[in-house]
C-alpha cells in the first residue's frame, strides 16, 4: 500500500483503510490479484493502520 507519493493524503488513506476494515463483506475482488475474504481484508487494513500508528 503506497501512501508516500507526492501529494498523498495519508489521513484520507487511513480513513479509507478503517472504512474497508469495517465493511461487512464476504468476498473482496481487488483491482489486481486474486479475490480474498473479509478476514484477509481486515488483516491487510489492520496491518497498514498499525504501521502508520507506529511511525
Q: Describe it for me?
A:
The protein is mainly α and 55 residues long. It has one domain (10-53). It contains 2 helices and 2 strands; from the N terminus they run αββα. The chain has helices spanning 10-22, 38-53; strands spanning 27-28, 36-37. The longest helix has 16 residues, at 38-53. The protein is globular, with a radius of gyration of 12 Å. It starts with 9 loop residues before the first helix and ends with a helix. The model has no long low-confidence stretch (mean pLDDT 91).
Summarize this structure briefly.
This protein has 55 residues and is mainly alpha-helical. The protein has helices spanning 10-22, 38-53; strands at residues 27-28, 36-37. It has one domain.
